[in-house]
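Onboarding guide, step 5: your first structure request.
Type a short instruction followed by the sequence, for example:

Predict the 3D structure of this protein.
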Amino acid sequence: MAEAKTTITSVSVEAFIESIEPPMRREEARLLDALFRKVTGTVPKIWGPSIIGYGEYSTTHDSGRAVHWMRSGFSPRKAKHSLYLMGGYCDDITATHRAEALARLGKHSVGKSCLYVNKLADIDMAVLEEIIATDWQTMLRLFPER
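The system replies with structure tokens like these:
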């Protein structure tokens, strides 16, 4: 079985955030980190070269593929922030709640398990907090900590 390409690294979250350019994107990463820490109550780790991940879980898919991944996280990419929110992908009830919350969020786009935001000024941060909190609780319910 192939090893996962994106794994936890020894890079410090603080050092990674300090390296982000431009300065506005770095400041937004600090704000997102503070929000994720508040909601999740966890200390993040760097996954791969550019993802700040909160919590972790392991599971095995029906196909037999074993997965070790973060419960939630984000990557401050150059064009957009990518927020990794798997709960809405894994759970129909959470997906319905997320759709309602996204209608109130502001300017964004979505992928299968990602929420993309150009800049934080485009969105309602209270709604984002609600989305992250609901997603976090879903991930804890679906993949209990051991």
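Each response can be followed by summary notes, for example: The chain has one domain: 13-142.
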